[in-house]
Amino acid sequence: MKIEIREILMKDNAKVKEVLVNVMKEFGVPDHGTALQDDELNTMCESYQENNSIYYVISSDGYIKGGAGISKLKGSDKNICELQKMYFLKDIRGIGIGFKLIKICLDFAKKSGYEFCYIETMHNMTAAQKLYKKNGFFQLESPLGNTGHDSCPIWMKRKL
User: Fold this and answer.
1) Tell me: the pLDDT tens digits for 123-152?
2) b or e along 106-144 (b: 16 or more beta carbons within 10 Å of the residue's beta carbon)?
């Protein structure tokens, strides 16, 4: 299996949305108060064109299998970015791709001058939570910013 991590392209929008929605549905993510409601699901490439934003896709043998991005945390005036929409199809989970992609995303965040990185996730995404903890994230008592994801009960942060 040949894995490639690259920046999202306009032609990737529909496939990235399909992958993200399928993985969220697999984990029972509610339709409301989560990334399933985000407008940018329809325009992923365009949504990550700001100077301090980026979205990476993972492709395997030419097929998009997942991705993750960095963008300024909505609703915060602090120097915090958010690791966003990090989802992978089942066939590429557990082989180290998540660890590699988080490193790439956090390196981008550091180079962009962010001080902290924040992430929200679901209670049943335990493998993802373990991965975030391995990468220096710690759990918070309450959410940061105003992401609109009030159905996400797990909030984590790390210093960059």
Assistant:
1) 999 999 999 999 999 999 999 998 878 788
2) bebbeebebebbbbbbbeebeebbebbeebebeeeeebb
